[in-house]
DNA sequence: GAAGTGGGTTTGATTTTCCAACGTACAGGG
DNA sequence: CCCTGTACGTTGGAAAATCAAACCCACTTC
């Protein structure tokens, strides 16, 4: 029986291959907040400068950030999210929400997002088809690649 | 002027400190799919066994997974998500959605999730207060920690 | 002309990762 | 009994990534 030996083909893994390295999502956070200059990134993220330079190159290559001059003479650059980069923000929102709930229950959240409706923004993930909030138990996984299976829904 | 030198306090960073290492979110993916045994994880993720063992210990310590025996004699264990682990699934869904749209536009998605409403599950992140789909331009960030600022909304 | 700012690169020590092999405990078949 | 196979890791050494500090260059401001 020929069983696949390669890791499971998966969009989660592919996305993490682009933005899953240390600091990459924090770079995106800062850039989405409008803090796109190199020294701002170094200070706000706390990453080594060389690593940060590597990550920035990679994110630009991946089409998630753009590097654009904001000053000639002296040449100065700023990183900004592309459309694709902005579309990664839901990942940041869900990470933040989990952290706020599970790691900051007492100390309070260090950053509040305000939605244009006037209330604090708390992300809720819903089903595009029916509009209901999504829950683990209400989902079923169907692999579409031969040789890969799932063990059925996992209970806690 | 005393400027903070520490990295920005942030729930995104704190959450990534727990699940942001290489393979950790893929472990969560497999465990949520019901594939919680060590050799399944090795095969489906493609991670080195020693690294995987380290990640599993860390995720159990963090309260995201539990390790429970499914057989005495021989002793065999299975990893399952805790309630907190299941609540990280929205992160996986948003990562998958981005990858499906940006990296698999042609080739088709390797895994389809079906919602109990009968349709394919496509996650949409909405505002808990007003129910609208969230968009970058409609959010404003308010740091609640002295010394930390944002540069205003970033345009693409 | 001295010091400061912005945007990085270089250097060398430390830490992680990787892969293959090994160990242990049991089960099944001949 | 012996051999093979499965499940769940641990160990060892080589390769790669990370880290902090120093350095570099082009300007600007004092």
TrEMBL record, chains A, B:
Transmembrane segments: none annotated. Residues 10-107 form the HTH hxlR-type domain. Keywords: DNA-binding, Transcription, Transcription regulation. Pfam families: HxlR. SUPFAM superfamilies: Winged helix' DNA-binding domain (SSF46785). This is Winged helix-turn-helix transcriptional regulator.
């Amino acid at each position: 029986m020929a069983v696949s030996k390669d890791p499971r083909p998966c969009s989660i893994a592919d996305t993490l291959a682009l933005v899953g390295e240390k600091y990459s999502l924090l770079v995106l956070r800062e850039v989405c907040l409008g803090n796109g200059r190199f020294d701002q990134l170094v200070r706000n993220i706390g990453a080594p400068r060389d690593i940060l330079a590597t990550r920035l190159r990679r994110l630009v290559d991946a089409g998630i950030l753009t590097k654009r001059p904001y000053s000639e003479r002296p040449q100065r650059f700023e990183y900004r999210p592309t459309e694709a980069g902005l579309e990664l923000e839901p990942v940041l929102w869900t990470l933040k929400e989990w952290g706020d709930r599970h790691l900051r229950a007492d100390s309070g959240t260090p950053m509040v997002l305000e939605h244009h409706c006037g209330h604090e923004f708390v992300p809720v993930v819903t089903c595009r088809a029916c509009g209901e909030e999504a829950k683990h138990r209400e989902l079923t996984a169907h692999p579409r690649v031969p040789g890969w299976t799932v063990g059925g829904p996992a209970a806690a």
